[in-house]
Design a protein that fits this description.
Serine Threonine Protein Phosphatase 5, Tetratricopeptide repeat; 17 helices; elongated
């Protein structure tokens, strides 16, 4: 029996606005619409209405409002920053960069322009340039915890783990209740083999944010590294309950179930991974191994063949 499968961590994506926030946003949208009807030259109202539309996911409509805002007030840096965010959400990354550069030209002390450009550059894989922008954000506002978290994530992508941990330490020092910083630091603790420290970070993240599915999944990974398979499965169960659409907890739970000898349950979890990600090579491989252990040779061969076909398609 293979007992050293790798667990997979993930960050929790924003879940969008809840019902109350949507209601408030619609009320704000109506108020700003009334404002621009009364004063068609009110640039700030267009900018603010664009923000509300972006929050509601109406990014193209938001861009139109930001266009109007900068037409009325060409030096309104916030409108360029906000338009960049909306364009980035639409995948218009180069246009978003131009907007952020324009914002910085009008207001070189705007910390959000540097933060957002750093985020965008990181998204484009330009990590060193991203760090330069995030360094500037930190210089402008040394107690801006978000800048440390983002810079930590970029340094982590560059395998500068100790520097990344220092950034998360700084963010946590500024705000001990920052669940994202604890989750992110926990990921690095696992990479460095500090599994108990990782479990402690994830526990803090969960205490601060009880619905933090990623932290449950990630704590399960650390628990499994420590051989605590029962505790790991409990964490994966909670991650699945909280975010059933995410594949990683099923994958990790399948690994733990296989290690516990619960082979049919492991296959059921790998089935769920493949349902959500039909081209997940590792899920096919792991399911094939478990089926082979159960003597289901033809099914195992089919899964191995499927994994090889996916690999070939990516070459």
């Amino acid at each position: 029996m293979i007992a050293n499968r790798q667990g997979r961590a993930y960050f929790l994506a924003d879940g969008g606005l809840d019902e109350a926030a949507v209601s408030q946003s619609r009320e704000a949208l109506a108020a700003y619409s009334q404002a621009v009807r009364l004063r068609p030259d009110y640039a700030e109202a267009y900018n603010n209405r664009g923000n509300v539309k972006s929050n509601l996911g109406h990014h193209e409509e938001a861009v139109a409002d930001y266009d109007r805002a900068v037409h009325l007030q060409p030096d309104l840096a916030d409108a360029y920053i906000n338009r960049a965010n909306a364009k980035a959400a639409l995948g218009q990354f180069q246009d978003a960069l131009v907007d952020l550069e324009t914002a910085i030209s009008f207001n070189p002390d705007n910390v959000f322009a540097f933060l957002n450009r750093g985020l965008l550059l990181a998204e484009l894989g330009q990590f060193e340039d991203a760090i330069a922008d995030l360094d500037e954000a930190v210089r402008l506002e040394p107690e801006f915890e978000r800048a440390y978290i983002v810079r930590g994530s970029v340094k982590s992508a560059l395998n500068r783990s100790q520097e990344a941990i220092a950034d998360y330490d700084r963010a946590i020092g500024l705000n001990p209740d920052n669940s994202e910083a604890h989750n992110s630091r926990g990921l690095l603790q696992v990479e460095l083999g500090r599994y108990e420290a990782a479990v402690a970070d994830y526990a803090l993240a969960i205490r601060m944010r009880p619905g933090y599915a990623a932290a449950y999944n990630n704590r399960g990974v650390a628990q499994a590294k420590l051989g605590r398979l029962g505790a790991a499965v409990d964490d994966y169960d909670e991650a699945v309950r909280l975010q059933p659409e995410i594949a990683e907890p099923y994958f990790n739970r399948g690994n733990a179930k296989e290690r516990q000898g619960e082979l049919e349950e492991a296959i059921a979890d790998y089935d769920q991974v493949i349902l959500r990600r039909p081209d997940d090579i590792e899920a096919y491989r792991n399911r094939a191994v478990v089926k082979a252990e159960l003597g289901r040779t033809e099914e195992a061969r089919s899964d191995f063949d499927r994994a090889l076909a996916i690999v070939a398609g990516r070459l």
